[in-house]
Design brief:
By secondary structure, the protein is α/β, with parallel strands linked by helices. The protein has helices at 14-24, 39-48, 82-91, 106-119, 133-143, 168-171, 180-196, 273-279, 316-329, 337-355; strands at 5-10, 29-35, 57-59, 72-75, 95-98, 123-125, 150-158, 200-208, 220-227, 232-238, 246-253, 257-259, 262-264, 286-291, 297-302. The chain has a 9-stranded mixed beta sheet with strand order 8-9-10-7-11-12-13-15-14, with helices on one face. It has a 6-stranded parallel beta sheet with strand order 3-2-1-4-5-6, with helices on both faces. α1 crosses α9 (316-329), α4 (106-119) runs antiparallel to α10 and α7 (180-196) crosses α10 (337-355). The structure holds NADP nicotinamide-adenine-dinucleotide phosphate (NAP). NADP nicotinamide-adenine-dinucleotide phosphate is lined by residues 11-16, 36-38, 41-42, 45, 76-79, 99-100, 126, 128, 166-167, 170, 311, 314. Residues 11-16, 36-38, 41-42, 45, 76-79, 99-100, 126, 128, 166-167, 170, 311, 314 line the site of NADP nicotinamide-adenine-dinucleotide phosphate (NAP).
C-alpha cells in the first residue's frame, strides 16, 4: 500500500488519547476519525489528555466508522463497546487495536473470535507492557536459555484505582468492569503467560475485599495457574493494599532468576555483567553488578521499568507499530485477539473459581 493507513479511534478518554498519539507518531498512519458520544466532550478530552495537532473529523455516529475510508480502528471506549465494535469492524475488513478486556464473558469472546477469524483482519490487544524494556529483557533471557527451565512466574498488579481515575464511574461496576481481574489484573495474567509460554491447564483463586470503597466486586484476588508443561504461575491483583502502583514480576528459573529488576542465583557465576552487556540485543539496557547481601552478588537490569499506572508511560507506540507491521508484512502481531483470548479465558475461569471458594477450574 503506497498511502498512509487511515486510523479511526473510538472512545476518546484517558487511554484513547494515548492511542491517538501512538498512531500520530507512526510515519505510515494518519488519524482521520474520532468517535465519541459528544463532540464538545471529545474536544475537551483531547485537550485534557494532551493530544496535539489532531485534525481528524469527530463523529458521534457509530456507522461512520464503517463507511469505507477507515483501514484501522482503535477501540478505547468503555468495556461493553469492545466486542460489538470489533466484530462490526472485522466484518468490514478493518484492522483492529483493541483495549483490554476485549470481551466481558465467554459468549462475547467467542463472538469476537468468530468474527475476527472469518475476516482475516490483523489485530493487537493492549497488553502493551509486552514492549516494556524489562519484559523484553526477560523474554530474551528466557529464549537464550540463561534462566534455565522456568519453574514459576509470579506477577502482581497493585493499584489503588479510585476517584482519581477518569473511568472511575464505569470501571467499578459489574456491568462494565466485571471484576478486578478483568478490569485491571488481566495485565498481570498476560505477563505470566508471556514468560511461561504454555497452555493453561487449571486455575484456582480466592478473592476478598479490603478498604477500597465503591466497587461492585471484590478488590483483592490471589490466583494460581497450572500449565501443561508443569510450570506454575501466581498472580495477585489488589486495589486495597498500601503501595504505589506496583507491577511485580518474578521469574524463577533453574539456573538464574529475575526478581523484578534483579538477576539472582544461588552460587557460582552463571552470568556476568560483561557477557550480558555484550550479548543483549536491546538498546539502552544496562546491567549493573550490585551486592545482594554481605556475601552474595546480584545484577541489576537498568532500564525503563513498569512503575507507573499512567497511560502516557505505557508503550502504546510499540503496540501500534506492531499492528502496522502485521498489516504491511503479513503474519500476526504478538498480541493478537486469538492469543489474548487465552488470557481472557484464564481470567473468566479464575473469577469462577474465586466465586466457588477456590475450586480448581479449567480455562
Ligand atoms: N491497556 C492499558 O494499559 C489501559 C489503561 C487504562 C485503560 N484501559 C482500557 O481503556 C478503555 C478506556 O479506559 P479509559 O481509562 O480511557 O477510560 P475513560 O477515560 O473513561 O474513557 C472512556 C471513554 O469512553 C466513553 N464512555 C464513557 N462512558 C460511556 C458510556 N456509558 N457509554 C459509551 N461510552 C462511554 C467516553 O467518551 P465519550 O463520553 O466521548 O463517549 C470516555 O471518554 C477501557 O477498556 C480500559 O479497560 C487500558
Amino acid at each position: 500500500m503506497n498511502r498512509k493507513l487511515r486510523v479511526a479511534v473510538s472512545g476518546i478518554g484517558w487511554c484513547g488519547g494515548e492511542h491517538i498519539k501512538a498512531f500520530q507518531a507512526h510515519p505510515d498512519c494518519e488519524v482521520v476519525l474520532l468517535h465519541g458520544r459528544d463532540e464538545t466532550r471529545v474536544r475537551q478530552n483531547l485537550e485534557k489528555f494532551g493530544v496535539k495537532n489532531c485534525a481528524a473529523k469527530i463523529t458521534t455516529r457509530t456507522e461512520d466508522l464503517f463507511r469505507g475510508d477507515v483501514d484501522v480502528l482503535s477501540i478505547a471506549g468503555i468495556n461493553s463497546t469492545h466486542t460489538p465494535l470489533a466484530c462490526e469492524a472485522a466484518r468490514h475488513g478493518i484492522h483492529l487495536m483493541i483495549e483490554k478486556p476485549v470481551a466481558r464473558d465467554v459468549t462475547e469472546l467467542q463472538t469476537l473470535l468468530t468474527a475476527v477469524g472469518k475476516s482475516g483482519v490483523k489485530t493487537v490487544v493492549s497488553f502493551e507492557l509486552y514492549w516494556n524494556p524489562l519484559f523484553q529483557v526477560a523474554r530474551w533471557l528466557i529464549a537464550s536459555g540463561r534462566l534455565g527451565r522456568v519453574m514459576f512466574v509470579r506477577t502482581n498488579y497493585h493499584s489503588r484505582v479510585g476517584p482519581w481515575y477518569a473511568g472511575w464511574d464505569w470501571c467499578r461496576t459489574r456491568a462494565e468492569g466485571r471484576s478486578l481481574l478483568l478490569n485491571a489484573g488481566c495485565h498481570a495474567v498476560d505477563a505470566v503467560r508471556q514468560f511461561t509460554n504454555d497452555e493453561p491447564q487449571a486455575v484456582s483463586a480466592f478473592h476478598t475485599t479490603g478498604l477500597a470503597q465503591g466497587y461492585e466486586y471484590p478488590t483483592t484476588i490471589q490466583l494460581n495457574i497450572q500449565f501443561a508443561g508443569g510450570q506454575l504461575g501466581q498472580v495477585s491483583a489488589s486495589a486495597d493494599v498500601a503501595t504505589p502502583y506496583h507491577f511485580g514480576l518474578e521469574i524463577y528459573g533453574t539456573k538464574l532468576s529475575l526478581v523484578n529488576q534483579y538477576l539472582r542465583w544461588p552460587d557460582g557465576e552463571p552470568v556476568t555483567v560483561a557477557e550480558l552487556q555484550h550479548a543483549c540485543p536491546l538498546p539502552g539496557v544496562r546491567f549493573v553488578a550490585e551486592a545482594y547481601s554481605e556475601t552474595k552478588s546480584q545484577i541489576r537490569v537498568d532500564c525503563l521499568l513498569p512503575t507507573s499506572v499512567s497511560v502516557d508511560h505505557h508503550p502504546f507506540r510499540d503496540e501500534a507499530a506492531a499492528l502496522v507491521d502485521a498489516i504491511q508484512r503479513g503474519g500476526e502481531t504478538p498480541l493478537s485477539v486469538a492469543r489474548a483470548a487465552i488470557t481472557h479465558r484464564i481470567c473468566f475461569a479464575v473469577d469462577q473459581s474465586a466465586d466457588r471458594g477456590g475450586q480448581p477450574v479449567q480455562p
